[in-house]
Design goal:
single chain, alpha/beta, two-stranded antiparallel sheet, globular
Length: about 220
Amino acid sequence: MADKSLPGIIFDMDGTLWDSAENVAKSWSTVTINYPGIEKDVTQADVQSVMGLTMDNIAARLFPQLTKEKQLDALEKCCKVENEYLRIHGGILYDGTEAVFKELLKKYRLFIVSNCQAGYIEAFLDHYGLWKYIEDIECYGNNRKPKGENIHLVCERNGLEKAVYVGDIQGDYNSSVQAGTGFIHAAYGFGKIDADVPAIKSIRELPQAVDKYFGI
């Protein structure tokens, strides 16, 4: 049972804990190559260009030629295949992630909040066997709430009085501001932050960064 008085570290997924873009593209292409009106592969660059967006915005960005209804239908089919593919094949887990989780758990409570579809975080945790480190998760696909609201929701339902969000893009920082948490930039990820915030160049630097942030 976690010590409820400990501060919380809430993680973004893509560009913070792993890079799944190549395998997401492979899985989506099995759907899009046969989907009327698309009929082409999704590339790794396509996936990287929309990481961090909510699912409805991803559908609109990648499949603009379709009606909104068809966009969402195509993406729903892609995501269903994706979850199973990633549960089996995984992605590129950033070096040291599990060791960092293990170290952080001595002083902090760990959570994940993402703009992903339902089942995506679960596939990640299943593939790498990381459930024992993560206390709670939330995502856009579960409740259609944006990331800032879901960070706040996780803090509220877990009684977190102090928390920091770890993410790699501007939208992650903006969401942390909306939620009222601190922020640490995973500068090894996919984006830059237009704010003066603590930054790490590797996930292995995170324990020292959060200790400094919380004054521990």
